[in-house]
Amino acid sequence: MIGRLNHVAIAVPDLDAAAALYRDTLGAAVSPPEPLPEHGVTTVFVELPNSKVELIHPLGEASPIAGFLERNPKGGIHHLCYEVRDIHAAVEAMKAHGMTVIGDGEPSIGAHGLPVVFLHPRDFCGTLIELEEVSA
User: Which CATH architecture has domain 5-133?
Assistant: First the structure.
């Protein structure tokens, strides 16, 4: 069901410093910051030949990333994002397998403007999983 790895998301305490690290030290192409108020984060994407790294930073008091950074003040890997062809079929398959879809189970629009859902870390070896619908 899952396709390729779309991105690895890393929560960071200083978005500008993290973007500069990837851009200036590793020579990577780095997108401008994009605030996503509906998700409580600001994101920057580091473009790689085979995938992306998403740098995420809290946006607002209710950001889910704020709690993560309280527990991990230097930052760390927050989630893995896998591509799927049909997000609704993926949600139904996950539920049929007893997996926990976070929220109400309805996809929201993610950073790429595509439908996404998150799966609870307790069901996936302690790792938060994002599924993102992509076309062929």
Answer: Roll (3.10)
Q: How do residues 68-104 score in pLDDT, each as one tens digit?
A: 999 999 999 999 999 999 999 999 999 999 999 999 9
Closest Cα partner for 39 from 14, 9, 4, 13? Answer: 9
77 vs 102: CA distance, rounded Å: 18
Q: Is the Cα torsion angle 4, 47, 55, 74 positive or negative in sign? A: positive
User: Is-contact 132 105, C-beta < 8 A?
Assistant: no
Please work out, in degrees rounded to the nearest 5, the angle formed at the alpha carbon of residue 97 by the alpha carbons of 92 and 102.
Answer: 60
Among 54, 83, 130, 133, the one annotated catalytic: 130
**Domain regions of the chain by residue span:** 5-133
In single-letter form, the type of residue at position 94 comes to M
Q: Is 130 a catalytic residue?
A: yes
Asked if residue 136 has pLDDT above 80, the reply is no
From the CB of residue 51, how many other CB atoms can be counted at a distance below 10 Å? 13
Q: What is the pTM of this model?
A: 0.92
Q: How far apart are CA 134 and CA 116, in angstroms?
A: 10
